[in-house]
Design brief:
Blueprint: H1 2-11, H2 27-38, E1 50-54, H3 67-79, E2 84-86, H4 99-113, E3 118-122, H5 128-141, E4 145-149, H6 158-171, E5 176-180, H7 182-185, H8 191-200, E6 205-208, H9 213-223, E7 228-232, H10 237-243, E8 247-250, H11 257-264, H12 268-282, H13 287-293, H14 313-326, H15 328-338
Parallel strand pairs: 1-2, 1-8, 2-3, 3-4, 4-5, 5-6, 6-7, 7-8
């Protein structure tokens, strides 16, 4: 099944934002050459706005990615109205995936959605060379855009961060989104740098996972007319919508897409339910908890990869009871039944 999905991904017709010479290998020179040749990238593409599911990565008993589950879950999300998927990111355990695994994961998701949803593929890698290869592979697979976290571990200057994104931009004709998650990455992208990179045509926008209203507001004021600004961190979804974010990237939308549609429509009661679930899952391992809870929808995403910890039978039972008591499953089922796909 995986090979068929990957072949489908390669055959998928899509309208790229613009052309570009992917052989350019100088970070600044390459980005400048692409921009000079083709002009500024279009912004506010409706395909990439709204609710985005940051997808989980299932593992089989052999420890490898379970591509059948990847495809089934991607199709399930599309059937429930999710129109943008973001594989190979934080929720997808991207730091613990090999380069080839990331590429095959992206190929499977693109093949599974078959053009019914856009795919914004994660291309983070430890080295600039890997980032460039992932960017080219995502484009070849038929992804609609790519997103890239800052470098991690070492603190970097604004100019170093700019070079990181210019390097990625030179590798692909796809729209590139910066991903700001300083609480995990040890680097924050300054708002003036975001504006500079948008002006240069290097990035098409940014995903900001700080959950800070003042920063999201500053980003919208700086680039909101020219680029897409996504909020993230599930407890911040309603606030991001009210502040005017163009989209929201969610982990819990893997399980509760209907409730997140309600949040995006401005429903505070749906946000309150999600807040309680988020608190519960954070207390039981985060990603491991989300994977376990997906069993409620008939999926088997297996465990997580080291160094993440697994749930025990006892903690799984405790988590099930905690989430059941919230009433979120009933709310999701009721909303899903009332909402057209």
């Amino acid at each position: 099944m995986r090979s068929a999905l990957r072949a489908g991904a390669r055959r998928r017709d899509r309208a790229p934002f613009r052309g570009g010479d992917r052989r350019l290998d100088g970070a600044r020179a390459g980005a400048d050459a692409v921009i000079a040749k083709e002009g500024r990238m279009p912004t506010h593409d409706a395909r990439l706005t709204g609710l985005v599911a940051a997808t989980l990565t299932p593992f089989g008993r052999d420890g490898g990615i379970d591509h059948d589950q990847v495809a089934a879950h991607a199709a399930w999300l599309v059937e429930r109205g999710i129109r943008v998927l973001a594989p190979a990111g934080t929720t997808g355990e991207a730091l613990y995936l090999a380069e080839r695994e990331k590429i095959e994961l992206i190929e499977t998701v693109v093949g599974a959605v078959r053009g019914r949803a856009a795919v914004i593929a994660g291309i983070w890698g430890l080295t600039p060379a890997e980032v460039a290869r992932l960017a080219r592979a995502a484009e070849a697979a038929g992804a609609d855009a790519v997103f890239l976290t800052t470098p991690i571990y070492y603190p970097h200057s604004a100019e170093s961060l700019a070079a990181w994104y210019r390097h990625a931009r030179a590798a692909t004709a796809l729209p590139l989104f910066a991903y700001n998650i300083p609480q995990y990455a040890a680097n924050e992208i300054p708002v003036p740098l975001v504006a500079q990179l948008v002006e240069e045509g290097v990035i098409a926008g940014i995903k900001d996972s700080t959950g800070q209203a003042d920063r999201l507001t500053a980003l919208l004021e700086a680039v909101g007319e020219r680029a897409l600004v996504y909020g993230a961190s599930d407890s911040f979804a309603l606030a991001a919508r009210r502040l005017g974010a163009h989209g929201f990237i969610s982990a819990l939308a893997n399980l509760f897409p209907a409730l997140f549609h309600r949040i995006w429509e401005g429903e505070a009661s749906a946000q309150a339910l999600v807040d309680r679930v988020r608190t519960a899952t954070k207390g039981y391992g985060g990603i491991a908890a989300l994977k376990h809870l997906l069993r409620r929808h008939g999926f088997d995403f297996g465990g997580t990869r080291l160094p993440f910890s697994e749930l025990t039978d006892a903690t799984r039972a405790e988590l099930d009871r905690a989430v059941e008591a919230i009433g979120v499953w009933q709310a999701e089922a009721a909303e899903a039944g009332a909402r057209p796909a």
